[in-house]
């Protein structure tokens, strides 16, 4: 049997490619140009699996991946997640020890402002971080470095001049692996289940009623977001990510109770929580509550109003 | 008195610049390089106001604007919103009637794939859509067009060869105007209030309790999202956007009741709903529930599990 294919948001050397390698599946990895193309290929069966950025993407995609999956597919499922630290390295031709120019995708240049300023580098743009690396590898110049993901240099025969030159340490980006089935439950791993629910009414209280079906069964919420539905002004869908596997008795009972309230439910995925490097607990790539934040949550309801 | 300043995510000719012009305030508009810089300048008082993309940004920013405002400032307030249709035009030197090359930010190129393919154009990248327009204006070549926002061409003395060449019609992007005060209530306009709440416990039921304080007072929810707090694993903040002005009696009573539950509340903004061109009701740039979506919300809890 030939290897099953997994598309990722390319080109080769992208952060999504790095995420695909971290998953370490025995799949044939193939780059694709857009999230929409990947989602459609998994839906149609042209690809067995797909890997897509789900939050802010350093590969520069702007489409809402969540909306693409929920509203543009019928039976695509999220079966795994991967979290990748956002690290930009500077890649040069072997032997080069100093540069005067940096090239990258504009997002890469924007994320490495400090390094660029400290080294007084001139900047040039490329269509992707991988294209930047390729242009350095294929060009004659030795005074230029490409800002790209840690895996990109070796793919094109370049070496790192400096590592982790991004302005913000500690940022991560999350990817979901898509398929037509979920993985069977493995012992010893924590699971999450993503369901999207269209409530029977836009009465605000209905959301509380649905949440009570989770809380009364001891099911914790991992994330929640609302999305307006264009076709029906004023109507909302809710994305719930809850802790547990979709076949767990309590999870199933909660979802059945939510359906009994009159809601329409779609199970969008059920997958093991990422347990790889670079992640502290469940919290990913978000700012902390520092001293300023504590002040700002001061229960002050009298805000300044312009004269 | 000199004019008050409003920073926008530049360079001049960006979609954020277009949004600033649509607001039609009597402010001196100045471009800034990043959302973080704009938020910090408003916080410090170096700028009176700032305009920032709040959702997917076609100007290519990836930082989470919501997190920047909520967690990195103490008293910045959202005082207005603007919604701009995502339209890319093709700008050329006056007199040019055909082109063989297109230049833009990679996001712009990605959004105009169909036009590029139909016209068999070679593509070149620039650091921003405005930089693309500037390079066409300043270069000698007449076989090249820049893909950029509708306002960008005139700023650099170019003319449109074609209009609205983006692949997806109907997409919009939303911007928030930031300041240190909110606008006084104007008669005849609908308002929204954004509050971020850190609940006293991560018990799932607490969210239902908070929602009940809104629903029992007839206050509708416009959007809701959860954000994990890095400093406190397992703890969440909730962003609620509710209908109404922060000084409305019912809104204030609901927020006081939520504080009485033990929550910490920050009023992040209170602003008139955008009533300008390009918007149908409250629903912005999101996919509809088409035939496929209806099938997908089928209450089917038995998803395929891999053997």
From TrEMBL, chains A, B:
Domain ACT stretches: 195-270
GO cellular component, one term: cytoplasm
Residue stretches making up the Prephenate dehydratase domain: 5-180
MF (Gene Ontology): prephenate dehydratase activity
GO biological process, any: L-phenylalanine biosynthetic process
Pathway assigned in UniProt: Amino-acid biosynthesis; L-phenylalanine biosynthesis; phenylpyruvate from prephenate: step 1/1
InterPro entries: ACT-like_dom_sf, ACT_dom, Chor_mutase/pphenate_deHydtase, Preph_deHydtase
Organism: freshwater metagenome
Protein's name according to its UniProt entry: prephenate dehydratase
Pfam families, per database record: PDT (PF00800)
EC numbers for this chain: 4.2.1.51
């Amino acid at each position: 049997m030939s290897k099953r294919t997994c598309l990722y948001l390319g080109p080769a050397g992208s952060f999504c490619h790095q995420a695909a390698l971290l998953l370490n599946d025995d799949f044939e990895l193939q780059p694709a140009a857009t999230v929409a193309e990947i989602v459609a290929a998994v839906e149609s069966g042209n690809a067995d699996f797909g890997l897509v950025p789900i939050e802010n993407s350093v590969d520069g995609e702007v489409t809402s991946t969540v909306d693409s999956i929920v509203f543009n597919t019928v039976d695509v499922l999220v079966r795994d997640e991967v979290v990748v630290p956002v690290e930009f390295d500077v890649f040069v031709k072997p032997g080069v020890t100093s540069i005067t120019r940096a090239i990258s995708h504009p997002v890469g240049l924007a994320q490495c402002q400090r390094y660029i300023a400290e080294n007084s580098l001139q900047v040039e743009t490329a269509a992707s971080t991988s294209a930047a690396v390729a242009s350095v590898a294929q060009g004659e110049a030795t005074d230029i470095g490409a800002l790209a993901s840690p895996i990109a240099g070796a793919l094109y025969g370049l070496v790192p001049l400096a590592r982790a030159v991004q302005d913000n340490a500690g940022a991560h980006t999350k990817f979901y692996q898509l398929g037509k089935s979920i993985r069977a439950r493995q012992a010893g791993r924590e699971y999450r289940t993503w369901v999207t629910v269209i409530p029977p009414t836009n009465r605000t209280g209905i959301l509380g009623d649905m949440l009570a079906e989770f809380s009364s069964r001891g099911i914790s919420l991992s994330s929640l977001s609302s999305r307006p539905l264009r076709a029906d002004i004023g109507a909302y869908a809710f994305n719930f990510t809850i802790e547990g596997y979709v076949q767990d008795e309590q999870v199933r009972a909660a979802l059945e109770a939510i359906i009994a309230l009159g809601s329409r439910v779609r199970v969008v995925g059920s997958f093991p929580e990422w347990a790889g490097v670079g992640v502290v607990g469940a919290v990913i790539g978000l700012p902390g509550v520092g001293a300023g934040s504590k002040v700002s949550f001061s229960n002050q309801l009298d805000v300044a109003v312009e004269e």
